[in-house]
Amino acid sequence: MNINRLLFAIFGAILMGLFVLAIWHDYDREWVWYQQGFSQLEQAGGVVKSAGAPGTASSKSRSQSGGVKQTVLDDLERVDRCETCHLGIANPVFAGAPQPYTTHPGDYLQHHPIEKFGCTSCHWGQGYATTANAAHGDVKHWDEPMLRGAYIQASCGKCHYSVRQLPGAEVLARGQVLYRELGCVGCHTLHGEGGPISVDLTEIGSKTADELDFTFVEGRRTVANWMYEHFLDPQKVTPGFSEQGIPPSVMPNYRMSPAEAEALTAYMMSLTKERLTREYIVPGESEPSPVYASSVDRGRAVFQKFGCVGCHNVDGRGGRKNWNAHTNGEVPSLVYVGRGYTREELKEKIRQGVPIVARRDPSGLTPPLYMPAWSEKIKGQDLEDLVDYLLSLIPAEMSAAAPAPSTTTQESSQPETPAPGAFRQADDLIDYLVRLMAFDEEVLPGRG
Description:
The chain is mainly α.
């Protein structure tokens, strides 16, 4: 009997200890200490608790009571508890306070009230969490870590269909411009438009870190940082594995500045699978249609619009890497394409594309870049203007040196020797020599 009483006393003490430990554990929460620190900040700074930002009465009242503070956003299917620690976020009195008590910068909350937008719809992170690391998404298996720095602008693109003149979204707007200028659309599809060669970018911002290889990434293990480093040096981040038949990244190394890589990353991160209800959408103003002085100028715009510049380079100079391609491992120049094709042949080549590029080394890797068929996308006047532009690329000296190919013969011939003095620039000479050396390798398919 004494043994039973002893065991009862021991187990009772253990249960009591666990009960006290549970109470202490519940009390000793990270957010509790933050709230105590906020109270001390109010007292030490002489902050008047009733002071608040205009139109933020509900946020003010929540900051005056303890406990977990929660905003339920049914339309966005989110629950945010960020204000549990960020107690001064909507009160301008705390503009100079340290984190996590400081006021939200700018006037964003006037246009994006917390009651409607919450926090994670823009900042990302884990809204349900009540510890800093978890709330910021810096934990395993959370796919939306908090967007930091300029990357927060990626969220502007979810609601605002046009950010070209949107204050506070300058980095995102620059990223959109870069996407067009660099010709990314030539290889990538976006909302159903673009080329089929590489990854569809329509929802690229919703990729998770587990879907990417961070072996050669030096910074943080986030999707945004992977993209940033990839844009700075594509072949460093994705070097390929020749023994497995995987070539390096075929994305050209554009020698981007850190600011440009950041801008393009912000744009990519804005392309997510999240779909918002109509009340959140801000329609964009339609851009005025440009006016061109000639068909050549219109053709240059077509060359840019459909991303030809991405592979064939600015002004059709070529030189982009295409591993193991028979054209010296590069995308060929278009500068002298008018000397190897008739107008009708050029149009047919654009319509049909070059789906298979011959290998320089027959036993080596398959060249990853190829020219898709553009018959469904570039047609009518766009096609005529594009051909006018391509035919205009021949330097004036070269154009006068020899006549264009006959429209009736199908026989190939060696490139004719230009007149003396035709080469005014080194690039002209290099382009001509490359074409001359590669002629027997059918640099211009259909002419041999």
